[in-house]
Amino acid sequence: MVSQVQRRTGFxxxxxxxxGANQTSNLGKPEEIVIFAIQNLSDRLGxxxxxxxxxxxxxFPVGAGPDFVNAAVAFQTxxxxxxxxxxxxxxxxxxxxxxxxxxxxxxxxxxxxAFGDQILPDxxxxxxxxxxxxxxxxxxxxxxxxxxxxxxxxxxxxxxPMMDVAPHWRHPVLGLTTAEMLDARSLAxxxxxxxxxxx
Length: 199
Hints:
Domain 7,8-dihydro-6-hydroxymethylpterin-pyrophosphokinase: 102-113
InterPro entries: Hppk, Hppk_sf
Pathway: Cofactor biosynthesis; tetrahydrofolate biosynthesis; 2-amino-4-hydroxy-6-hydroxymethyl-7,8-dihydropteridine diphosphate from 7,8-dihydroneopterin triphosphate: step 4/4
Number of domains: 1
Protein name: 2-amino-4-hydroxy-6-hydroxymethyldihydropteridine pyrophosphokinase
Helix content: 25-40%
GO molecular function: 2-amino-4-hydroxy-6-hydroxymethyldihydropteridine diphosphokinase activity; ATP binding; kinase activity
């Protein structure tokens, strides 16, 4: 069946975003911030959004701050990836997000995880960031959008919420589905992530 977006524009992209917060802000507690962000995304996109439950997850890396509240959303859009990212940054700013410490505590983080089967900006750059040693990940930040997110396969706190909204999404480089990538994570890592009330 052809979707409404396809009929209107002739093309669409299946997008997955990951959301997380572990600090309070003018919008309230982390749970309230994530719920606000999801609603704001829906309003701005003007399109139906599939949303995951909320999950409590340990801060990454260990000891980096209080536990996070994480969620994922999936939707179809005819916008460009850069336009979706700009919307995400605007919503982060509404929550008082600052970018002072990499992987530090934050009022809101929205990551563009997947943009259909696109690899951005290209395969070589994506592989560079995907293979970056952990010690370099703490200090280096790409200057451009990398899609799929180079760490999605490494993070159960992203994959578990994704299972609620995009279990069959297939990584265009690794060839693995969300479910298969989650299966590869350790039982200990997955056991640290707890479902909260539905978003």
